[in-house]
């Protein structure tokens, strides 16, 4: 099966080409092509997983490829690397993408550009899969950029809405800043190691570090450059601003971006190049602290947002922060495990919110309420997703989040206790704001009766993915059931290491009492505010108005970046415009014209118009030449 | 003819060429300029033939050149006279100094 793994990115890319060229006008055929190719990719991914499981744990890595470009001494290859990490990602990406595509049948059925939508989804997934199976830095960069392009196309899918067009542009530009760093990292790798191949670079780094020909600080520099790309793609502070705005795209696209295809790329890339990151404590510390800060920072913003998708977007930022932090403190397995479980419950939450939006045509949670009476399936599945992200046992989020907390606690990184308390507090905030969202939207009384009366449960194609994902949001965590640890024994870096080390479920519960307590506390507090209404959120907002405004306006980061752009960029532009007007235009362009005219005027004096003058010059010249030649 | 030395032919040609050049450069009447050009051409023809005679009478290169020059000169005279007539009709004069439209 592994020898066919190259088909996984190729099939969706082919689907994109087919839909674009042939079936634009036939909605159903386009959707069928896209869904069928994705289903076959999923089947291939499952086959690859089982084949890997059959192999010896020490040698679970298969790579093959071919030359793409040969520019001596560099050789750009295109190839496939299948190991537990990429097998894991392949499963996540193909499965989430398949469900999102099925869900879109219902969600997008009225859209005029239905076929185009499916072609973009296919291309998006193809790019992500290209990145995931890559066996070298150059190919990962190609996939990386293609993912950026597709996110631009899909976020701006409803380009006639100015907000969507702006959000797409913002996502693209902000990503470009991070990608610049990534590109510099890739080029540096090419220059230093003369190869882009993961395995070769890994060996060269290990050799160089062992015989002291390569300083670990140098490797850390490369790792941090690469990390810039991850900061952009995985929307970490300070390049987090694009992700909440990316909500302007169709909701299934948000689910895809948030769960599988886009933001996971950054985390995956750090995991893939982990040997560079782990070479020096400096790069690990940077990664861990950026992740930890993003986690708590985004969670605090989510407390004060009113748009259902925005709350989910900030929760994604926060959870991505967890993953990055986990990788930074050395929790390779827990980071990737959280990526996997998060993909399930975040896709579920987004598709659930899409179901709500589909029913109400409304995104403001304060105009919703009481939906549990009308939308049973959506409510139950959304509740499961919320419990999972809040980290309540035995839902999926509990296992992965607890593994991350353990990894942070056990790490040897600089002041890891700060990170630990930040992570625990973030868990509390997460439980609080997610249940705020749940209580406001699904319980209590309807606030807007007009849209409430029209609300209805979504069609089968939308409910099926919800139910499947809800099932996974419960079960996926059990892969790491204490004592079994199936996931930890499959995906790990270096030597096998089990976080926490609990040998049965009861022991795990006792060990992780703190994370359970904070999650329950968050839910209880949230219920006091928004379910039982013992406290009034409005009064709190008035009492702590400055803080509320700070959070509601996302710490004014958009305004701050806007100010930077206005001041520095526009200032520079003004200076350059002056230079262009005064020096280039008036000075050089007009000046060269003036010189040419004056020179022409001078030379035109020789053009007397008298034929005999010319003849005299000709004869004179001949005479001069004759004299010169003869003497 | 053999007792006339080559240099005499060259003197004759030189004098003719000088007269022709004077006509071209100094005369104001376009017809005179044209006649000057014809004189210069004939001076060249004399040179051709003289050198051909004293160098290698068996070679036809010189005489053939002369034939061509005479032919071209006839054509040139026809064209030039047509231009001069055209200028005269236009300007009511055949003075070359009056036709200086191309002055820079």
Describe this protein's structure.
The complex is a heterodimer of chains A (631) and B (104). Chain A is mainly α and 631 residues long. Helices cover 73% and strands 3% of the residues of chain A. Chain A is built from 27 helices and 2 strands. Chain A has a two-stranded antiparallel sheet. Chain B is mainly alpha-helical. Chain B has one domain (6-91): Helix Hairpins. Chain B has helices spanning 6-26, 30-55, 61-91. In chain B, helix 1 (6-26) runs antiparallel to helix 2 (30-55). The longest helix of chain B is centred in the C-terminal third of the chain and has 31 residues, at 61-91. Chain B is elongated. Classes of the chains: A mainly alpha (631), B mainly alpha (104). The interface between A and B is medium-sized, with 13 and 13 residues.
Give keywords.
heterodimer; A: 631 residues; mainly alpha; two-stranded antiparallel ribbon; 73% helix; B: mainly alpha; 3 helices; 75% helix; 0% strand; elongated
Furnish the topology, listing elements before pairings.
The complex is a heterodimer of chains A (631) and B (104).
Chain A: H1 7-21, H2 27-54, E1 62-71, E2 74-82, H3 84-107, H4 114-133, H5 137-155, H6 162-193, H7 198-210, H8 216-233, H9 242-245, H10 251-261, H11 263-272, H12 274-277, H13 281-302, H14 308-328, H15 332-360, H16 376-390, H17 396-410, H18 416-442, H19 449-454, H20 460-475, H21 486-490, H22 505-511, H23 513-530, H24 537-543, H25 545-552, H26 557-604, H27 611-630
Antiparallel strand pairs in A: 1-2
Chain B: H1 6-26, H2 30-55, H3 61-91
């Amino acid at each position: 099966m592994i020898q066919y793994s190259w088909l996984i990115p190729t099939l969706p890319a082919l689907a994109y080409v087919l839909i674009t060229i042939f079936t634009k006008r036939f909605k159903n055929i386009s959707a069928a092509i896209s869904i069928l190719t994705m289903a076959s990719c999923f089947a291939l991914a499952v086959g690859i997983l089982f084949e890997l499981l059959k192999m010896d744990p020490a040698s679970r890595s298969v790579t093959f490829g071919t030359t793409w470009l040969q520019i001596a001494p560099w050789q750009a290859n295109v190839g496939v690397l299948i190991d537990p990490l990429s097998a894991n990602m392949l499963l996540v990406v193909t499965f989430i993408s398949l469900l999102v595509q099925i869900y879109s049948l219902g969600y997008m059925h009225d859209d005029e550009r239905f076929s185009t939508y499916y072609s973009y989804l296919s291309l998006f997934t193809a790019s992500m899969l290209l990145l995931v199976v890559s066996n070298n830095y150059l190919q990962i960069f190609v996939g990386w950029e293609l993912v950026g392009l597709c996110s631009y196309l899909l976020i701006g899918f409803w380009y006639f809405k100015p907000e969507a067009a702006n959000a797409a542009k913002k996502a693209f530009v902000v990503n470009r800043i991070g990608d610049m760093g990534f590109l510099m990292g890739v080029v540096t790798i090419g220059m230093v190691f003369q190869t882009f191949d993961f395995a070769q670079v890994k060996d060269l780094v290990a050799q160089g570090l062992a015989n002291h020909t390569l300083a670990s600080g140098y490797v850390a520099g490369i790792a941090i450059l690469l990390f810039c790309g991850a900061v952009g793609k995985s929307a970490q502070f300070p390049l987090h601003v694009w992700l909440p705005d990316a909500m302007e795209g169709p909701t299934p696209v948000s689910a895809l971006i948030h769960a599988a295809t886009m933001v996971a790329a950054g985390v995956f890339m750090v995991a893939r190049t982990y040997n560079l990151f782990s070479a020096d404590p400096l790069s690990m510390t940077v990664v861990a602290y950026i992740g930890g800060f993003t986690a708590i920072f985004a969670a605090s913003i989510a407390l004060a947002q009113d748009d259902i998708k925005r709350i989910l977007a900030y929760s994604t930022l926060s959870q991505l922060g967890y993953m990055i932090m986990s990788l930074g403190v050395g929790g390779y397995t827990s980071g990737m495990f959280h990526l996997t479980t998060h993909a399930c419950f975040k896709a579920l939450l987004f598709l659930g919110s899409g179901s709500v939006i589909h029913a109400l045509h409304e995104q403001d949670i304060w105009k919703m309420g009481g939906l549990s009476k009308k939308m049973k399936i959506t409510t139950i599945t959304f509740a499961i997703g919320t419990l999972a992200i809040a980290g309540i046992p035995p839902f999926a989020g509990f296992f992965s989040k607890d593994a991350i907390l353990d990894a942070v606690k056990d790490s040897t990184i600089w002041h890891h206790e700060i990170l630990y308390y930040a992570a625990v507090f973030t868990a509390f905030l997460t439980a609080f704001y997610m249940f705020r969202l749940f209580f406001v939207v699904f319980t209590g009384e309807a606030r807007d009766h007009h849209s409430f009366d029209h609300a209805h449960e979504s069609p089968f194609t939308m409910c099926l993915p919800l139910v499947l994902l809800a099932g996974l949001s419960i079960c996926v965590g059990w892969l790491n059931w204490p004592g079994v640890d199936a996931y930890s024994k499959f995906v790990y870096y270096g030597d096998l290491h089990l976080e926490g080390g609990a040998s049965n479920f009861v022991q795990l519960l006792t060990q992780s009492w703190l994370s359970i307590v904070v999650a329950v506390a968050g839910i209880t507090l949230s219920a006091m505010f928004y379910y039982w209404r013992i406290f009034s959120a409005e009064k709190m907002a008035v009492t702590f108005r400055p803080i509320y405004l700070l959070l509601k306006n996302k710490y004014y980061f958009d305004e701050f970046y806007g100010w930077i752009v206005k001041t520095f960029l526009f200032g520079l532009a003004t200076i350059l415009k002056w230079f262009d007007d005064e020096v280039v235009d008036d000075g050089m362009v007009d000046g060269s014209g003036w010189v040419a005219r004056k020179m022409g005027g001078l030379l035109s004096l020789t053009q007397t118009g008298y034929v005999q003058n010319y003849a005299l010059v000709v004869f004179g010249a001949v005479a001069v030449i004759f004299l010169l030649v003869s003497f | 003819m053999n007792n006339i030395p080559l240099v005499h032919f060259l003197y004759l040609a030189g004098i003719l060429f000088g007269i022709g050049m004077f006509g071209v450069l100094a005369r104001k009447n376009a017809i005179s300029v044209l006649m000057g050009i014809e004189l210069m051409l004939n001076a060249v023809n004399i040179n051709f033939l003289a050198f051909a005679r004293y160098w290698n009478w068996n070679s036809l290169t010189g005489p053939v050149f002369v034939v061509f020059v005479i032919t071209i000169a006839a054509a040139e005279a026809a064209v030039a006279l047509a231009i001069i007539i055209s200028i005269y009709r236009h300007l009511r004069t055949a003075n070359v100094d009056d036709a200086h439209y191309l002055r820079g």
